[in-house]
Design goal:
By secondary structure, this protein is an all-alpha fold. The protein is 73% helix and 0% strand. It has a domain at 27-79. The longest helix is centred in the middle third of the chain and has 18 residues, at 28-45. It is globular and about 30 Å long.
Length: 86
Amino acid sequence: MSVLDNWEQWKDFLGDRLHQATAEGMSQQVVSDVAYSVGDYLAKQVEPKNAQEKVLADLWSVASTEEQHAIANMMVKLVQNDGNMQ
C-alpha cells in the first residue's frame, strides 16, 4: 500500500519529511520550493488515489504558478504540526 492511497498517511508522511528537512537545516524557502516541485510532479505524473488528492489535482490544474506556490505552501502548513517527530 502506497502512502498516496490514504490521505492521513500521506499527511503524516509529508509532516515527517518536513520535520526531517527542518531539523537538518533546510530553510523555509527551500521547503517551499521543494513542496512546489513535488506538487507539480504529482499533478502531472500521478493519478489521484483519494478524494482529497483529486481536489488538489483539480485546483492545481486551474491555478496560476503563483497560486500553485500558494497551494504548496498551504500543504506545508497543513502538515507542519501533524508529522510524527522521529
